[in-house]
């Protein structure tokens, strides 16, 4: 079994009277990718802040490769690369200049810095745009440069906080190709996202937090065992579902969840696989033409909604 790289134990953090994180524990093995999921306000961002030493916990500890991670522990923090949700780049500098600046903050210099800049630019497929100002980059290119900056000092653990927010499908795929390359190299990753399909594609292990507590800590296969046997109906329509029909569909018998994907694609979580035929008939009766449909097992989104509830969060 792989050794433990990071161990977070009983992390707690309050802001005034509000307990943002309440006894969160998790671990990351060497070479493992852990998906960290939770609704808005669940405590993910505060947890990430404590994991990388930016936020001091009220209680509990984070150990990385045998060293405590705290705001003052510079040596331990240097073993972590953080890709923040908010872009951390200088728009008036080129990609190359940004990376040289960030590299200097990690005491990289001379030939070692020059070589590392070239390596991370190649990793994120930006070598041909290295001399261009970041202000001319698309959102996806900026996200990829953010990953390059986090990898400059060759960290043992890369933490990515919503790294695909606001990017198009092509850029999301390019980011994933980069992360999958890092996985093949044996890198350890923590990945937070609101996109369930991203976590399903990347993560070896998934931790779900809600109301500041861990409510699931399982492999993807283990998570599926937390639900009763459930099926899913996936389909594509010639035209999108109208909002009223979408709500009516959610209320149909046998429907556990309805999720909209790219284009006119949808996925319905079913409590009874026998309901699929009736639902397809319902769509046709309401004037929708099916382009394609298939049945499958319950998705991670079905499991997530089942564990955290379906009500909106602020």
UniProtKB/TrEMBL annotation:
<keyword id="KW-0472">Membrane</keyword>
<keyword id="KW-1003">Cell membrane</keyword>
<protein>
    <submittedName>
        <fullName>ABC transporter ATP-binding protein</fullName>
    </submittedName>
</protein>
<dbReference type="InterPro" id="IPR003439">
    <property type="entry name" value="ABC_transporter-like_ATP-bd"/>
</dbReference>
<dbReference type="Pfam" id="PF13732">
    <property type="entry name" value="DrrA1-3_C"/>
</dbReference>
<dbReference type="GO" id="GO:0005524">
    <property type="term" value="F:ATP binding"/>
</dbReference>
<dbReference type="Pfam" id="PF00005">
    <property type="entry name" value="ABC_tran"/>
</dbReference>
<keyword id="KW-0067">ATP-binding</keyword>
<dbReference type="InterPro" id="IPR017871">
    <property type="entry name" value="ABC_transporter-like_CS"/>
</dbReference>
<dbReference type="InterPro" id="IPR027417">
    <property type="entry name" value="P-loop_NTPase"/>
</dbReference>
<dbReference type="InterPro" id="IPR003593">
    <property type="entry name" value="AAA+_ATPase"/>
</dbReference>
<keyword id="KW-0547">Nucleotide-binding</keyword>
<keyword id="KW-0813">Transport</keyword>
<dbReference type="InterPro" id="IPR025302">
    <property type="entry name" value="DrrA1/2-like_C"/>
</dbReference>
<feature type="domain" description="ABC transporter">
    <location>
        <begin position="6"/>
        <end position="236"/>
    </location>
</feature>
């Amino acid at each position: 079994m792989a050794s433990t790289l990071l161990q977070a134990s009983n992390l707690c953090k309050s802001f005034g009277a509000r307990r943002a994180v309440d006894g969160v524990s998790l671990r990351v093995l060497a070479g493992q990718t852990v998906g960290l999921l939770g609704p808005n306000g669940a405590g993910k961002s505060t947890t990430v802040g404590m994991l990388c030493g930016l936020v001091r916990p009220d209680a509990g500890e984070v150990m990385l490769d045998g060293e405590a991670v705290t705001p003052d522990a510079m040596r331990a923090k240097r073993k972590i690369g953080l890709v923040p949700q908010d872009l951390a780049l200088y728009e008036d500098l080129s990609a190359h200049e940004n990376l040289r600046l960030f590299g200097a903050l990690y005491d990289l210099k001379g030939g070692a810095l020059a070589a590392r800049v070239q390596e991370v630019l190649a990793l994120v497929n930006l070598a041909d745009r290295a001399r261009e100002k970041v202000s001319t980059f698309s959102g996806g290119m900026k996200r990829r440069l953010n990953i390059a900056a986090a990898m400059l000092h060759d960290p043992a653990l890369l933490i990515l906080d919503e790294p695909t927010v606001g990017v198009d499908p092509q850029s999301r795929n390019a980011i994933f190709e980069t992360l999958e390359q890092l996985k093949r190299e044996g890198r350890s990753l923590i990945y937070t996202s609101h996109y369930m399909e991203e976590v399903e594609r990347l993560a070896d292990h998934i931790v779900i937090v809600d109301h500041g507590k861990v409510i699931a800590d399982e492999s993807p296969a283990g998570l599926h065992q937390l639900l009763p046997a459930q099926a899913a109906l996936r389909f594509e329509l010639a035209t999108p579902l109208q909002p009223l029909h979408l709500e009516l569909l959610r209320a149909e018998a046998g429907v556990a969840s309805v999720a909209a994907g790219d284009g006119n694609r949808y996925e319905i979580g079913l409590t009874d696989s026998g309901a699929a035929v009736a639902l397809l008939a319902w769509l046709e009766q309401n004037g929708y033409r099916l382009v394609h449909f298939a049945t499958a097992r319950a998705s991670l989104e079905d499991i997530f909604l089942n564990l955290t509830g379906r009500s909106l969060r602020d």
